[in-house]
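hey team, just a heads up i'm posting the complex here instead of the shared drive bc the drive is being weird again. everything in one block, sequence lines first with there labels, then the predicted structure for the whole assembly after. its two chains so it's a bit long, scroll down
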Amino acid sequence: MAESITLKINGQSHTVQAEGDVPLLWVIREYLQLTGTKFGCGIAQCGACTVHVDGQPMRSCQLQVSRAVGREITTIEGIREDHPVKQAWIDIQVPQCGYCQSGQIMSAVALVEKNSNPSEQEIIQAMEGNLCRCGTYTRIKQAIYQAAEKVRNS
Amino acid sequence: MKSTIDRREFLTRAGLTLAIAATPSSLKVFALGEADTAVEVFSPGPWLQITPDNQVTILLCKSEMGQGVHTAIPMIVADELEADWNQVKTEMAPVTEEYQDPVMKSHSTYGSTTIRHLYEPLRKLGATGREILIEAAAKKWNVAAGECEAIQGKIHHKSSSRTFSYGELVEEASSLPIPENPRLKNKSEFKLMGTPVPRRDIPAKVSGQAKFGIDTFVEGMLYGVLARPPAYGAKVSTYDEQAAKKVEGVRQVVKIGRGIGILADTLDAAWKGREALNAKWDGETQPRMSTASVDKLLAESLDKEGASARSDADVQGALTAGDKRVGAEYFLPYLSHTVMEPMDCTAHVQADRCDVWAPTQTQSGVQEVATRITGLKPEQIQVHTTYLGCGFGRRGGTFVVQEAVELSKAAGKPVKVIWTREEDMKYGAYRPGYGHRIEASLDKAGQVTAWSHKVAASSVMAGLRGLGRGGPPTDPFAVGALSRRFQYEIPAMSVEYVRVDTPIPVRTWRSPSGSHSGFAVESFMDELAHAAGQDPVKFRLKHLEHSPRAHRVVELAAEKAGWGKPLAGGRARGIANFLSDDTYVAEVAEVSVNRQTGAIQVHRVVCAVDCGPVVNPDTVDAQMAGALTMGLSAALKEKLQFANGGVESNNFLDYPILRMSEAPDVEVYLVESDDQIGGAGEPSLAPIAPAVANAVFAATGVRIRTLPMTPARVLEALAG
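-- predicted structure starts here --
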């Protein structure tokens, strides 16, 4: 049975009628129409649906919406446009088709906010779960180096 | 090459067609916005409109899937028009003949053709606009046109410093005749072309605001999913419609051409309805079809006689007469496109119109499908093109469009269809598996004297045209790169095609010819070089005497990669070179092989490219890196699995694609070239698999002739 569920997303409160076992991804995307978060695989293998839950990057396709209640959810729309990661993504011209890039950016933001001087191995470790079929991996690495440097110097 | 000249003539004609279409009688007053506020529009050709508000609008018949054409197309027009980049916007054109690609005669985006087909017509279009605007200003000032100059969206009168904006000249310009041969800019006058202009779609793709097909919402829409047959040819035997309808939110169950549709208020309800439906299927075409049977069929097909695609005099005689004879077989698997955005489409069928929102590579195809299903006229079909979450040829297909339109027609409401990743994996049309058998002979000097080549595969051409087992005897996607467009200079060559028929649908997959021919030809060239005791770079150059462009990219790639210089850490280099889409690409891969695990690590790839004039060098760089990364994914990891008469692969767990740790550092070098323009979206894909296989041979002495080069296959090869 659908129930009334209140979520805190990007600092705002949203109430939806949904069954508790619906993945958070679909509530964010299809119920609330915050469409920046993307569906790619449904089994936590591609990272397109990455959001932050209480500051941690998570695959929203794997989190039942009932378990997201009361937690701070951040989506791509909640990352400020002048965030060093978003800026670097534009400077380096990272996206091609762009479909996976919300998830890439969410993983990268989580990385540089925790570690503003990541090694190549640390970048790979943080980004390994985010697939890009267009092949933008080289530019993603470059953009993370640039964003991390900006975070370090700020 | 005759075909090249033909295409050039065709482009010239296309340009003229444009100019002819742009007679004064075709200058229209369009009604924009409110029906009663007619706005004067100056339009020197159907794709370009300038309005009094100083807005330059370019109408596009091409989809944006990351290849940057929604930036490159306006760059070409704006440069020749001498418009201010910020006053130029783009819109998707209505799907009518007037706006179509003049070469392919449709609204479609495939084959790395956008810039190749449109470069010259767009330049002429912009230059035509510029010349008329100069003429219009001269007339208003009553001065000679020669005293006026177009600079960044304004016409200047040189001696009096008076100016008009383009918007101010719309009315005057609309009454002037169209010049037949506008002067195109010299390269030195370009302001945008040849510079790395930031892509216009990128900010929205970074902010999360970009709208893909899956992001479509229409008031009152239902979600549609399908219960689908698990094997090719299977028909539904039983299903529980009532159980599905009992699921909260399920509105309707309807049998359509491709399965049983479940319509619901939410996607999760539709999925639950599908589960409750519990559809059973039987009557599959080939219940025992499996990966093993598909592989076996391919290998056996190479023993059959094929249809000839090229047959020089006495190839067999030349093969026998050679000093040394070399032969090899290469096998490539079926591949899924695995576009990151699984198939989706939203349709709204009404009595007098049908709207379709689709991430599509073929607006013409969408229109055709919707027309057929609804019985409406083509002009009643409104195609709304969203961004595409990857294309790679997959979105030239219209299965999902068919489903959305059929379901909307049945429901009388807008319907959004979203496939799961599993559906996307199992119900696609694929890059077919290929078998190549090659034999060649070398003379004493190590020159190839004869080359006999047989290819076995399903016909992509028949797949694209829905010809079933009919269609032409040979398939250009299987043998085109070996016959008409074969690069190497071989005195006697024969090419045969054996058609393999299976129930598996096939279609174009990024670099449809090169993705398989490149591996076979460039691996074999490496084998020949070693058989001749020669350096693989020098050996290739010796067989490219009359192809200066190929020569140059091979030399450039070798030089930048440090070919011949020692490498540390067990690394070795391999080279490959391929011509596709009129673009010359050579790549050197630097790899190491872990002899314990069998894992191949590709550390660095140097890619040298000659694609003729470059519109946006940063985009070309990105496309080269991207296509070779996708090619590497296929080379190392991808093989679609079959079982029980259908596709067995499900998702990224059992069809893995390349991850960041496996991606090499890529360096792209563009050759400065004014030669014939080539495509950029695909040509770097073909050389990567052979470059890696050749590097693996250099590192280990082991030749891998079957893709993908998985650790298991490498270990097996190392064990001999």
